[in-house]
Amino acid sequence: MKYLFYPGCTLKTTSREYGDSAQAVMRELGVELAELPDWNCCGATVASGVNYLLSLALPARNLALAEQAESDLVAACSGCFVNLVRAKRHTQQSPATREKVNTILAEAGLQYHGTTRVRHLLDVVVNDVGLEAVSERVRRRLEGLRVAPYYGCQIVRPYAEFDDPADPVSMDRLITALGAEAIPYPLKTACCGGVLATTKRDIALKLIGDLMAAARDADCIITVCPLCQLNLDAWQAEAGRRLRVEFGIPVLFFTQLMGLAFGLPESELGLSRHVVSASSLVKKLAPMGIGATAGG
Amino acid sequence: MFGRRSSDAVEETERLVAQVLRPQAGALNISQELGDDLFRLCYECGLCSGVCPTSYAMPYTPRQVAHMLDMGLDEEVLESKTHWFCTSCYSCMTHCPRGVSIADIMASLKRVELAHGKKGDKSPRFYRAFMDTIRRHGRLHEVELVRRYIGGDVRELQRQARLGLTLWSRGKVALKATDVKDKKAVEAMFRKAEEMGVSS
Fold this sequence. Notes:
The complex is a heterodimer of chains A (296) and B (200).
Chain A: E1 2-6, H1 16-28, E2 32-35, H2 52-68, E3 73-75, H3 78-93, H4 95-106, E4 118-120, H5 121-137, E5 146-149, H6 170-177, E6 181-182, H7 196-199, H8 201-214, E7 220-223, H9 226-243, E8 251-253, H10 254-262, H11 266-269, H12 279-284
Parallel strand pairs in A: 1-2, 1-3, 3-4, 5-6, 5-7, 7-8
Chain B: H1 6-21, H2 30-34, H3 47-51, H4 62-70, H5 74-80, H6 91-95, H7 102-115, H8 122-137, H9 142-150, H10 154-169, H11 183-196
Protein backbone atom coordinates (compact mmCIF):
# COMPACT_ATOMS: atom_id res chain seq x y z
CA MET A 1 0.00 0.00 0.00
CA LYS A 2 1.17 3.51 -0.80
CA TYR A 3 -0.37 6.86 0.12
CA LEU A 4 0.42 10.49 -0.44
CA PHE A 5 1.02 11.94 3.00
CA TYR A 6 0.30 15.48 4.12
CA PRO A 7 2.39 15.93 7.29
CA GLY A 8 1.32 19.50 8.00
CA CYS A 9 3.54 21.99 9.79
CA THR A 10 3.68 20.57 13.31
CA LEU A 11 4.79 17.06 12.36
CA LYS A 12 8.07 18.64 11.32
CA THR A 13 8.54 20.69 14.50
CA THR A 14 6.70 20.57 17.85
CA SER A 15 5.19 17.15 17.10
CA ARG A 16 8.02 15.59 15.17
CA GLU A 17 7.65 12.42 17.26
CA TYR A 18 4.22 12.00 15.63
CA GLY A 19 5.72 12.18 12.14
CA ASP A 20 8.64 9.91 13.05
CA SER A 21 6.53 7.29 14.81
CA ALA A 22 3.90 7.35 12.04
CA GLN A 23 6.54 6.62 9.42
CA ALA A 24 8.10 3.89 11.58
CA VAL A 25 4.90 1.94 12.32
CA MET A 26 3.51 2.30 8.81
CA ARG A 27 6.78 0.93 7.41
CA GLU A 28 6.33 -2.06 9.76
CA LEU A 29 2.85 -2.55 8.35
CA GLY A 30 4.13 -2.41 4.78
CA VAL A 31 2.55 0.95 4.03
CA GLU A 32 4.51 3.71 2.35
CA LEU A 33 3.66 7.30 3.30
CA ALA A 34 5.14 9.45 0.53
CA GLU A 35 5.27 13.13 1.43
CA LEU A 36 3.17 15.41 -0.78
CA PRO A 37 5.73 17.50 -2.69
CA ASP A 38 5.79 21.20 -1.78
CA TRP A 39 2.73 21.12 0.49
CA ASN A 40 1.68 24.33 2.27
CA CYS A 41 0.04 25.16 5.62
CA CYS A 42 -3.70 24.38 5.73
CA GLY A 43 -4.48 27.58 7.67
CA ALA A 44 -5.22 25.70 10.92
CA THR A 45 -8.21 27.01 12.90
CA VAL A 46 -7.06 30.55 12.15
CA ALA A 47 -7.58 31.19 8.41
CA SER A 48 -11.38 30.80 8.50
CA GLY A 49 -11.48 33.68 10.98
CA VAL A 50 -9.46 35.91 8.67
CA ASN A 51 -10.51 35.25 5.07
CA TYR A 52 -13.13 32.68 4.06
CA LEU A 53 -11.96 32.00 0.49
CA LEU A 54 -8.33 31.83 1.54
CA SER A 55 -9.28 29.33 4.27
CA LEU A 56 -10.53 27.05 1.47
CA ALA A 57 -7.83 27.86 -1.08
CA LEU A 58 -4.89 27.04 1.23
CA PRO A 59 -5.96 23.42 1.80
CA ALA A 60 -7.27 23.25 -1.78
CA ARG A 61 -3.76 23.86 -3.11
CA ASN A 62 -2.69 20.64 -1.37
CA LEU A 63 -5.78 18.84 -2.67
CA ALA A 64 -4.98 20.02 -6.19
CA LEU A 65 -1.37 18.82 -5.91
CA ALA A 66 -2.63 15.40 -4.75
CA GLU A 67 -5.19 15.37 -7.55
CA GLN A 68 -2.43 15.85 -10.11
CA ALA A 69 -0.75 12.77 -8.65
CA GLU A 70 -4.11 10.94 -8.80
CA SER A 71 -3.85 9.93 -5.18
CA ASP A 72 -5.79 9.98 -1.93
CA LEU A 73 -4.30 12.36 0.63
CA VAL A 74 -3.60 11.17 4.17
CA ALA A 75 -3.34 13.66 7.05
CA ALA A 76 -2.24 12.85 10.58
CA CYS A 77 -3.20 16.15 12.24
CA SER A 78 -6.91 16.54 12.93
CA GLY A 79 -6.76 20.27 12.14
CA CYS A 80 -5.24 19.57 8.72
CA PHE A 81 -7.73 16.76 8.17
CA VAL A 82 -10.80 18.88 8.89
CA ASN A 83 -9.55 21.75 6.72
CA LEU A 84 -8.88 19.46 3.76
CA VAL A 85 -12.32 17.84 4.09
CA ARG A 86 -13.95 21.27 4.54
CA ALA A 87 -12.31 22.64 1.39
CA LYS A 88 -13.40 19.58 -0.57
CA ARG A 89 -16.98 19.75 0.71
CA HIS A 90 -17.48 23.50 0.37
CA THR A 91 -16.17 23.52 -3.20
CA GLN A 92 -18.34 20.50 -4.05
CA GLN A 93 -21.51 21.94 -2.54
CA SER A 94 -21.32 25.39 -4.12
CA PRO A 95 -20.25 25.84 -7.76
CA ALA A 96 -19.84 29.57 -7.07
CA THR A 97 -17.43 28.86 -4.22
CA ARG A 98 -15.53 26.33 -6.36
CA GLU A 99 -15.12 28.93 -9.07
CA LYS A 100 -13.82 31.53 -6.62
CA VAL A 101 -11.40 29.08 -5.01
CA ASN A 102 -10.13 28.07 -8.45
CA THR A 103 -9.64 31.74 -9.32
CA ILE A 104 -7.29 31.94 -6.34
CA LEU A 105 -5.63 28.61 -7.19
CA ALA A 106 -5.03 29.82 -10.74
CA GLU A 107 -2.54 32.26 -9.20
CA ALA A 108 -0.55 29.19 -8.22
CA GLY A 109 -1.05 27.58 -11.62
CA LEU A 110 -3.48 25.02 -10.20
CA GLN A 111 -7.14 23.97 -10.39
CA TYR A 112 -9.05 21.66 -8.07
CA HIS A 113 -11.75 19.43 -9.53
CA GLY A 114 -12.93 17.77 -6.33
CA THR A 115 -11.70 14.21 -6.82
CA THR A 116 -9.04 13.89 -4.10
CA ARG A 117 -10.15 11.65 -1.25
CA VAL A 118 -9.06 12.85 2.18
CA ARG A 119 -8.18 10.32 4.87
CA HIS A 120 -7.03 10.49 8.47
CA LEU A 121 -4.09 8.27 9.36
CA LEU A 122 -6.18 6.56 12.07
CA ASP A 123 -8.79 5.69 9.43
CA VAL A 124 -6.08 4.16 7.21
CA VAL A 125 -4.67 2.09 10.10
CA VAL A 126 -8.02 0.79 11.34
CA ASN A 127 -9.94 0.42 8.08
CA ASP A 128 -7.37 -0.11 5.29
CA VAL A 129 -4.55 -1.94 7.02
CA GLY A 130 -7.03 -3.48 9.45
CA LEU A 131 -6.72 -4.44 13.09
CA GLU A 132 -5.95 -8.07 12.26
CA ALA A 133 -2.81 -7.05 10.41
CA VAL A 134 -1.96 -4.70 13.27
CA SER A 135 -2.21 -7.41 15.94
CA GLU A 136 -0.14 -9.78 13.78
CA ARG A 137 2.70 -7.25 14.02
CA VAL A 138 2.54 -7.03 17.83
CA ARG A 139 5.74 -8.34 19.43
CA ARG A 140 5.01 -7.11 22.92
CA ARG A 141 1.37 -7.16 23.92
CA LEU A 142 0.62 -4.22 26.17
CA GLU A 143 -1.12 -6.38 28.79
CA GLY A 144 -2.32 -4.53 31.84
CA LEU A 145 -1.76 -1.09 30.35
CA ARG A 146 -4.75 1.21 30.89
CA VAL A 147 -5.08 3.66 28.03
CA ALA A 148 -7.50 6.58 27.67
CA PRO A 149 -8.39 7.14 23.99
CA TYR A 150 -8.67 10.88 23.41
CA TYR A 151 -10.08 11.80 19.99
CA GLY A 152 -10.65 15.52 20.52
CA CYS A 153 -12.81 17.52 18.14
CA GLN A 154 -11.86 17.77 14.56
CA ILE A 155 -11.26 14.15 13.66
CA VAL A 156 -15.02 13.54 14.02
CA ARG A 157 -16.60 17.01 13.99
CA PRO A 158 -18.22 18.50 12.04
CA TYR A 159 -17.59 15.81 9.42
CA ALA A 160 -18.00 12.25 10.68
CA GLU A 161 -15.96 10.79 7.82
CA PHE A 162 -15.21 7.39 9.32
CA ASP A 163 -16.37 7.21 12.93
CA ASP A 164 -19.21 8.25 15.20
CA PRO A 165 -19.09 11.96 16.12
CA ALA A 166 -20.41 11.42 19.67
CA ASP A 167 -18.79 8.10 20.55
CA PRO A 168 -15.95 7.20 18.19
CA VAL A 169 -14.43 3.74 18.74
CA SER A 170 -11.59 3.36 16.20
CA MET A 171 -8.88 4.07 18.76
CA ASP A 172 -10.59 1.98 21.45
CA ARG A 173 -10.49 -1.00 19.08
CA LEU A 174 -6.88 -0.27 18.16
CA ILE A 175 -5.87 -0.21 21.85
CA THR A 176 -7.51 -3.59 22.36
CA ALA A 177 -5.74 -4.98 19.28
CA LEU A 178 -2.42 -3.96 20.85
CA GLY A 179 -3.27 -5.99 23.96
CA ALA A 180 -3.90 -2.98 26.20
CA GLU A 181 -7.09 -1.95 27.95
CA ALA A 182 -9.11 0.98 26.57
CA ILE A 183 -10.63 2.60 29.64
CA PRO A 184 -14.04 4.25 29.38
CA TYR A 185 -13.27 7.90 28.71
CA PRO A 186 -16.42 10.03 28.77
CA LEU A 187 -14.54 13.14 27.59
CA LYS A 188 -13.05 11.38 24.56
CA THR A 189 -14.42 14.01 22.15
CA ALA A 190 -14.23 17.05 24.45
CA CYS A 191 -12.18 20.07 23.42
CA CYS A 192 -8.60 20.69 24.65
CA GLY A 193 -8.97 24.44 24.24
CA GLY A 194 -7.06 24.57 20.96
CA VAL A 195 -5.55 27.96 20.31
CA LEU A 196 -7.02 29.33 23.55
CA ALA A 197 -4.03 27.80 25.34
CA THR A 198 -2.15 30.77 23.88
CA THR A 199 -4.80 33.50 23.74
CA LYS A 200 -7.06 32.73 26.74
CA ARG A 201 -5.02 30.43 28.91
CA ASP A 202 -7.33 30.35 31.95
CA ILE A 203 -10.10 28.82 29.89
CA ALA A 204 -7.80 26.29 28.23
CA LEU A 205 -6.42 25.27 31.63
CA LYS A 206 -9.92 24.55 32.88
CA LEU A 207 -10.65 22.32 29.88
CA ILE A 208 -7.29 20.58 30.17
CA GLY A 209 -7.84 20.06 33.90
CA ASP A 210 -11.21 18.42 33.21
CA LEU A 211 -9.71 16.16 30.55
CA MET A 212 -6.83 15.08 32.79
CA ALA A 213 -9.06 14.50 35.83
CA ALA A 214 -11.30 12.20 33.79
CA ALA A 215 -8.22 10.18 32.75
CA ARG A 216 -6.76 9.88 36.25
CA ASP A 217 -6.98 6.08 36.27
CA ALA A 218 -5.10 5.78 32.99
CA ASP A 219 -1.43 4.85 32.55
CA CYS A 220 -1.39 7.09 29.51
CA ILE A 221 -3.59 9.07 27.16
CA ILE A 222 -3.29 8.62 23.40
CA THR A 223 -4.20 11.29 20.88
CA VAL A 224 -4.57 11.77 17.13
CA CYS A 225 -3.85 15.51 17.00
CA PRO A 226 -0.66 17.55 17.59
CA LEU A 227 -2.44 20.45 19.30
CA CYS A 228 -4.38 18.13 21.66
CA GLN A 229 -1.11 16.40 22.50
CA LEU A 230 0.77 19.65 23.11
CA ASN A 231 -1.98 21.16 25.25
CA LEU A 232 -2.44 18.09 27.45
CA ASP A 233 1.28 17.38 27.71
CA ALA A 234 2.63 20.89 28.24
CA TRP A 235 -0.13 22.32 30.42
CA GLN A 236 -1.31 19.40 32.57
CA ALA A 237 1.04 20.34 35.42
CA GLU A 238 -0.32 23.89 35.62
CA ALA A 239 -3.91 22.69 35.22
CA GLY A 240 -3.23 20.20 38.01
CA ARG A 241 -1.82 22.88 40.35
CA ARG A 242 -5.12 24.73 40.10
CA LEU A 243 -6.96 21.57 41.09
CA ARG A 244 -4.32 20.60 43.67
CA VAL A 245 -3.67 17.34 41.83
CA GLU A 246 -0.43 16.03 40.39
CA PHE A 247 -1.38 14.23 37.20
CA GLY A 248 1.92 13.11 35.65
CA ILE A 249 0.12 11.17 32.93
CA PRO A 250 2.12 10.67 29.69
CA VAL A 251 0.28 11.82 26.57
CA LEU A 252 1.30 9.80 23.52
CA PHE A 253 0.35 9.78 19.88
CA PHE A 254 -1.48 6.60 18.92
CA THR A 255 1.38 5.75 16.58
CA GLN A 256 3.83 5.77 19.49
CA LEU A 257 1.70 3.25 21.39
CA MET A 258 1.61 1.08 18.26
CA GLY A 259 5.40 1.37 18.01
CA LEU A 260 5.83 0.20 21.61
CA ALA A 261 3.65 -2.83 20.92
CA PHE A 262 5.57 -3.52 17.69
CA GLY A 263 8.77 -3.50 19.74
CA LEU A 264 10.31 -0.63 17.81
CA PRO A 265 13.27 1.17 19.42
CA GLU A 266 12.24 4.11 21.58
CA SER A 267 14.53 6.41 19.59
CA GLU A 268 12.43 5.83 16.47
CA LEU A 269 9.29 6.70 18.40
CA GLY A 270 10.56 9.95 19.92
CA LEU A 271 9.36 8.95 23.38
CA SER A 272 11.91 11.24 25.06
CA ARG A 273 10.43 14.33 23.42
CA HIS A 274 7.40 14.66 25.70
CA VAL A 275 7.13 17.13 28.54
CA VAL A 276 5.67 14.48 30.86
CA SER A 277 8.13 11.62 30.73
CA ALA A 278 6.95 8.31 29.30
CA SER A 279 9.66 6.32 31.08
CA SER A 280 7.33 5.09 33.85
CA LEU A 281 5.08 3.76 31.14
CA VAL A 282 7.86 1.89 29.35
CA LYS A 283 8.92 0.28 32.66
CA LYS A 284 5.44 -1.15 33.09
CA LEU A 285 5.62 -3.01 29.80
CA ALA A 286 6.40 -6.70 29.65
CA PRO A 287 9.84 -7.55 28.23
CA MET A 288 9.98 -8.15 24.51
CA GLY A 289 8.63 -11.46 23.32
CA ILE A 290 6.49 -12.10 26.37
CA GLY A 291 2.83 -12.31 25.60
CA ALA A 292 3.54 -11.91 21.91
CA THR A 293 1.01 -13.39 19.55
CA ALA A 294 3.25 -13.45 16.54
CA GLY A 295 6.71 -12.62 15.38
CA GLY A 296 8.50 -12.68 18.74
CA MET B 1 -59.94 47.23 22.36
CA PHE B 2 -63.48 47.03 23.85
CA GLY B 3 -66.11 48.54 21.64
CA ARG B 4 -63.97 48.27 18.53
CA ARG B 5 -64.91 45.98 15.71
CA SER B 6 -63.16 42.65 15.94
CA SER B 7 -61.63 43.07 12.48
CA ASP B 8 -59.91 46.22 13.78
CA ALA B 9 -58.46 44.21 16.63
CA VAL B 10 -57.27 41.53 14.22
CA GLU B 11 -55.68 44.14 12.00
CA GLU B 12 -54.03 45.80 14.95
CA THR B 13 -52.68 42.46 16.18
CA GLU B 14 -51.40 41.54 12.75
CA ARG B 15 -49.67 44.88 12.48
CA LEU B 16 -47.99 44.41 15.84
CA VAL B 17 -46.95 40.82 15.10
CA ALA B 18 -45.56 41.79 11.69
CA GLN B 19 -43.51 44.47 13.37
CA VAL B 20 -42.05 42.11 15.93
CA LEU B 21 -41.15 39.34 13.50
CA ARG B 22 -39.88 41.46 10.64
CA PRO B 23 -36.28 40.42 10.08
CA GLN B 24 -34.01 43.36 10.51
CA ALA B 25 -30.63 43.54 8.89
CA GLY B 26 -28.09 44.59 11.48
CA ALA B 27 -25.69 47.42 10.84
CA LEU B 28 -22.87 45.04 9.94
CA ASN B 29 -24.96 42.85 7.65
CA ILE B 30 -23.60 39.63 9.11
CA SER B 31 -25.83 37.49 6.89
CA GLN B 32 -24.10 38.86 3.82
CA GLU B 33 -20.71 38.19 5.35
CA LEU B 34 -21.80 34.66 6.28
CA GLY B 35 -23.35 33.93 2.92
CA ASP B 36 -26.58 32.79 4.61
CA ASP B 37 -29.06 33.79 7.28
CA LEU B 38 -29.64 30.33 8.71
CA PHE B 39 -29.44 31.84 12.21
CA ARG B 40 -33.02 32.98 11.61
CA LEU B 41 -34.05 29.32 11.86
CA CYS B 42 -32.84 29.18 15.48
CA TYR B 43 -35.70 28.32 17.85
CA GLU B 44 -33.54 28.89 20.90
CA CYS B 45 -33.38 25.37 22.28
CA GLY B 46 -29.96 26.25 23.71
CA LEU B 47 -28.26 22.94 22.81
CA CYS B 48 -25.35 24.91 21.32
CA SER B 49 -24.80 26.72 24.59
CA GLY B 50 -25.05 23.46 26.51
CA VAL B 51 -22.42 21.62 24.47
CA CYS B 52 -20.07 24.59 23.94
CA PRO B 53 -16.94 24.05 26.07
CA THR B 54 -16.36 27.77 26.56
CA SER B 55 -19.89 29.19 26.77
CA TYR B 56 -19.52 29.40 30.55
CA ALA B 57 -17.00 32.20 30.01
CA MET B 58 -18.53 33.90 26.97
CA PRO B 59 -20.03 37.40 27.29
CA TYR B 60 -23.02 36.05 25.33
CA THR B 61 -23.76 32.34 24.96
CA PRO B 62 -23.99 30.89 21.43
CA ARG B 63 -27.80 30.81 21.72
CA GLN B 64 -27.84 34.47 22.65
CA VAL B 65 -25.54 35.28 19.73
CA ALA B 66 -27.91 33.64 17.23
CA HIS B 67 -30.88 35.43 18.77
CA MET B 68 -29.15 38.80 18.85
CA LEU B 69 -28.15 38.50 15.19
CA ASP B 70 -31.77 37.71 14.37
CA MET B 71 -32.74 40.91 16.17
CA GLY B 72 -30.22 42.89 14.17
CA LEU B 73 -27.93 43.48 17.13
CA ASP B 74 -24.78 42.74 15.07
CA GLU B 75 -22.74 45.53 16.59
CA GLU B 76 -23.53 44.55 20.17
CA VAL B 77 -22.46 40.97 19.40
CA LEU B 78 -19.26 42.13 17.73
CA GLU B 79 -18.33 44.48 20.55
CA SER B 80 -18.79 41.72 23.13
CA LYS B 81 -15.87 39.84 21.48
CA THR B 82 -17.62 36.55 22.23
CA HIS B 83 -16.24 35.09 18.99
CA TRP B 84 -12.69 34.96 20.36
CA PHE B 85 -13.85 32.36 22.90
CA CYS B 86 -14.73 29.94 20.08
CA THR B 87 -12.19 27.11 19.70
CA SER B 88 -13.68 25.76 16.43
CA CYS B 89 -14.55 22.48 18.16
CA TYR B 90 -17.74 22.32 16.07
CA SER B 91 -19.85 20.85 18.89
CA CYS B 92 -22.57 23.45 18.30
CA MET B 93 -22.71 22.61 14.61
CA THR B 94 -22.98 18.87 15.22
CA HIS B 95 -25.78 19.28 17.74
CA CYS B 96 -27.98 22.02 16.25
CA PRO B 97 -31.38 20.55 15.32
CA ARG B 98 -31.95 23.45 12.90
CA GLY B 99 -28.70 23.21 10.98
CA VAL B 100 -27.40 26.55 12.19
CA SER B 101 -23.62 26.65 12.09
CA ILE B 102 -22.72 28.73 15.10
CA ALA B 103 -19.02 27.99 14.61
CA ASP B 104 -19.20 29.55 11.13
CA ILE B 105 -20.99 32.58 12.61
CA MET B 106 -18.15 32.95 15.13
CA ALA B 107 -15.60 32.77 12.29
CA SER B 108 -17.44 35.43 10.33
CA LEU B 109 -17.51 37.71 13.39
CA LYS B 110 -13.74 37.26 13.68
CA ARG B 111 -13.37 38.21 10.01
CA VAL B 112 -15.48 41.34 10.43
CA GLU B 113 -13.50 42.48 13.45
CA LEU B 114 -10.13 41.85 11.78
CA ALA B 115 -11.24 43.51 8.52
CA HIS B 116 -12.14 46.64 10.48
CA GLY B 117 -8.44 46.88 11.13
CA LYS B 118 -8.52 47.66 14.83
CA LYS B 119 -5.42 46.51 16.63
CA GLY B 120 -7.27 44.54 19.27
CA ASP B 121 -6.07 42.38 22.12
CA LYS B 122 -4.27 39.04 22.18
CA SER B 123 -6.67 37.03 20.05
CA PRO B 124 -6.70 39.26 16.95
CA ARG B 125 -2.98 39.75 17.42
CA PHE B 126 -2.45 36.00 17.33
CA TYR B 127 -4.61 35.56 14.22
CA ARG B 128 -2.71 38.28 12.35
CA ALA B 129 0.66 36.91 13.48
CA PHE B 130 -0.29 33.43 12.27
CA MET B 131 -1.44 34.55 8.83
CA ASP B 132 1.56 36.87 8.35
CA THR B 133 3.87 33.96 9.17
CA ILE B 134 2.34 31.47 6.75
CA ARG B 135 2.11 34.16 4.07
CA ARG B 136 5.85 34.65 4.30
CA HIS B 137 6.89 31.00 4.49
CA GLY B 138 3.94 29.04 3.10
CA ARG B 139 4.21 26.97 6.25
CA LEU B 140 4.03 27.68 9.95
CA HIS B 141 7.29 28.73 11.55
CA GLU B 142 6.51 28.61 15.25
CA VAL B 143 9.43 30.78 16.42
CA GLU B 144 8.38 33.57 14.06
CA LEU B 145 4.71 33.18 15.02
CA VAL B 146 5.53 33.58 18.71
CA ARG B 147 7.85 36.53 18.01
CA ARG B 148 5.19 38.32 15.95
CA TYR B 149 2.49 37.50 18.50
CA ILE B 150 4.45 38.72 21.50
CA GLY B 151 5.49 42.00 19.86
CA GLY B 152 6.53 44.22 22.76
CA ASP B 153 4.40 42.47 25.39
CA VAL B 154 6.92 41.61 28.11
CA ARG B 155 4.47 39.66 30.28
CA GLU B 156 3.47 37.51 27.36
CA LEU B 157 7.14 37.01 26.54
CA GLN B 158 7.73 35.65 30.05
CA ARG B 159 4.79 33.28 29.76
CA GLN B 160 5.87 31.97 26.37
CA ALA B 161 9.54 31.70 27.27
CA ARG B 162 9.00 28.88 29.77
CA LEU B 163 7.13 26.72 27.31
CA GLY B 164 9.65 27.60 24.61
CA LEU B 165 12.56 26.47 26.80
CA THR B 166 10.84 23.21 27.68
CA LEU B 167 10.15 22.43 24.04
CA TRP B 168 13.67 23.50 23.14
CA SER B 169 15.11 21.01 25.63
CA ARG B 170 13.08 18.25 23.93
CA GLY B 171 14.47 19.14 20.50
CA LYS B 172 11.14 20.41 19.24
CA VAL B 173 12.00 23.97 18.31
CA ALA B 174 13.12 24.58 14.73
CA LEU B 175 15.01 27.85 14.56
CA LYS B 176 15.03 27.91 10.79
CA ALA B 177 11.83 27.95 8.79
CA THR B 178 11.27 25.26 6.16
CA ASP B 179 9.58 27.23 3.41
CA VAL B 180 7.52 25.96 0.51
CA LYS B 181 9.47 26.05 -2.74
CA ASP B 182 6.77 27.92 -4.62
CA LYS B 183 6.64 30.93 -2.29
CA LYS B 184 5.54 33.18 -5.14
CA ALA B 185 2.41 31.08 -5.62
CA VAL B 186 1.46 31.35 -1.95
CA GLU B 187 1.96 35.13 -1.97
CA ALA B 188 -0.10 35.45 -5.16
CA MET B 189 -2.90 33.40 -3.57
CA PHE B 190 -2.95 35.63 -0.50
CA ARG B 191 -3.06 38.74 -2.68
CA LYS B 192 -5.86 37.41 -4.86
CA ALA B 193 -7.92 36.31 -1.85
CA GLU B 194 -7.54 39.75 -0.25
CA GLU B 195 -8.64 41.36 -3.51
CA MET B 196 -11.77 39.16 -3.53
CA GLY B 197 -12.73 40.14 0.02
CA VAL B 198 -12.81 38.30 3.33
CA SER B 199 -16.39 37.01 3.27
CA SER B 200 -18.17 33.97 1.92
